Amino acid sequence: MLVCYYASKYMRINVKAKPNAREESVEKISDTDFVVSVKEPPVKGMANRAVINALAVHFGIGSVRVKIISGHTSRQKVVEIL
User: What's this model's pTM, rounded to 2 decimal places?
Assistant: First the structure.
């Protein structure tokens, strides 16, 4: 279990990625947990890039401010929002 860390510069959230979805969506489960559905397949980092872009749009920030901290090859990810 990972707790969402709020510091003056960033927050960390838990993300469950769902690649190969019919439509893209970001669903907030709790303050620290999100489910992100993306159309891209989990091949060569395509789904990870799509997850980053979907979260950036959801939070209204640039994609360079969203970083996957752990879970690059897993559906369960820890993402840092700067």
Answer: 0.86
